[in-house]
Design a protein that fits this description.
- The chain is of the alpha/beta class and about 325 residues long.
- The chain has 2 domains: about 15-105 and about 220-325, Vaccinia Virus protein VP39 (Rossmann fold, 3-Layer(aba) Sandwich); about 135-215, DNA polymerase, domain 1, CATH 1.10.150.
- It is about 40% helix and about 15% strand.
- It has 14 helices and 7 strands.
- The protein has helices spanning about 15-20, 35-45, 55-65, 85-90, 105-110, 135-145, 145-155, 160-175, 180-190, 205-215, 220-230, 245-260, 290-295, 320-325, and strands at about 25-30, 50-55, 75-80, 95-100, 235-245, 280, 305-310.
- The protein has a 7-stranded mixed beta sheet, with helices on both faces.
- It starts with 12 loop residues before the first helix and ends with a helix.
- Bound molecules: S-adenosylmethionine.
- The site of S-adenosylmethionine (SAM) has 21 residues, from helix 2 and strand 2.
- S-adenosylmethionine binds near residues 53 and 55.
């Protein structure tokens, strides 16, 4: 069988593998992609079982192929983070190591027909799961109000020229819908004043990011992922999350902090009365980032941030599946 071509180099590979607990037995990869991380994990933990999901059917096909030789691969399912509780119940499993490598893969970006890239002409789609997700980026641009588009660009793109871009989109669609990635990229390029355009940074970058986040409901998905993972780590288990921009990294950092310091008592109380205990510890103060060599080989790794959280070895009653067994 020939290898399906999946154009994606896993980032921070050695660092991810090193962050899994020694003797990990049950692994969960929530973002299989081309399964580069999963493959390296299975090479190191040859007796482990691996469960994996991805919402993109192309990624699943590539993962199944790449992981075919590993007997430990127990389940590969098409699912989004919101569906993880359903699958974990079916698998009846909690995990020593959970990995989430957020965002899109290079494969998704490189396929013009998926509509993620402003550099290649394609339909304005951006759905990671084109079969089960309904709304495309083109539909959002055609159907939302100017106010909603503006808010979306501000919130998910942190786009300074959101009002101007939203206005131009609404004006454009009064004559003709925005259909292709190039339609949108060129519109943004016209709207953002030249003197604010940075070298080596396409002015439509943040607009595309915002639309991708909205199409795929990424903030809700990340919240669901974090809710799920803390409940489904075994005592001493670890969660590793790789993010690529601040809107992904921020919720991860905040949740890790809450898990470490869940006490809700007013700071002037001499003793804790809320009784909320730390669920574990964040293993780094600062995220792990790629070194110069990796950035040279894989420029996408430049913005990668890896954070790892370790669940307490002893879990408190009611706070973990294992302690209920
Ligand atoms: C950066 S890639 C992962 C690459 C992978 N670690 C590898 O080694 O090839 C991110 C993957 O996560 C998937 N993904 C993103 N958001 C998701 C979600 N909410 N639920 C499930 N999969 C998601 C994407 O479809 C994509 O394939």
């Amino acid at each position: 069988m020939s290898e399906p071509c999946f154009r994606h180099l896993p980032v921070l590979l050695a660092e991810v593998v090193a962050s899994a607990p020694a003797n990990s037995q049950n692994l969960l990869d929530c973002t299989l992609g081309g399964a580069g991380h999963s493959q390296a994990l299975l090479k190191k933990f040859s007796k482990a079982t691996l469960y994996g999901i991805d919402r993109d059917p192309t990624a699943l096909a590539a993962s199944r192929h790449r992981l075919a030789e590993f007997p430990g691969v127990t389940a590969i399912e098409q699912a989004s983070f919101l569906e993880l509780p359903y699958w974990a119940e079916r698998w009846n499993m909690s995990f020593d190591f959970i990995l989430a490598d957020l965002g899109m893969s290079s494969e998704q970006l490189a396929a013009p027909e998926r509509g993620f890239s402003f550099l290649q002409e394609g339909p304005l789609d951006m759905r990671m799961d084109p079969f089960r997700q309904v709304e495309t980026a083109a539909q959002i641009l055609q159907q939302r109000s100017e106010f909603e588009i503006r808010r979306l660009l501000q919130t998910y793109g942190e786009e300074r020229f959101a009002p101007q871009i939203a206005r131009a989109i609404v004006k454009h669609r009064a004559n003709a819908p925005l259909v292709t990635t190039t339609d949108l990229a060129e519109l943004v390029e016209r709207v953002v004043p030249r003197k604010f355009q940075k070298p080596n940074f396409h002015p439509a970058t943040q607009t595309f990011q915002a639309l991708r986040m909205e199409v795929n409901q990424e903030p809700e998905e990340i919240k669901a992922l974090l809710d799920f993972t803390i409940e489904n780590l075994r005592p001493g288990g670890r969660l590793a999350v790789i993010s690529f921009h601040s809107l992904e990294d921020r919720p991860v950092k905040q949740r890790f902090r809450e898990w470490e310091r869940p006490c809700r008592c007013p700071s002037d109380l001499p003793l804790c009365v809320c009784g909320l205990q730390a669920l574990g510890v964040s293993l780094q103060r600062k995220p792990i980032v790629a070194g110069a060599e990796e950035i040279e080989q894989n420029p996408r790794s430049r913005s990668a941030r890896l954070r790892v959280f370790e669940r307490n070895a002893v879990c408190f009653p009611g706070s973990d599946k294992e302690s209920e067994d």
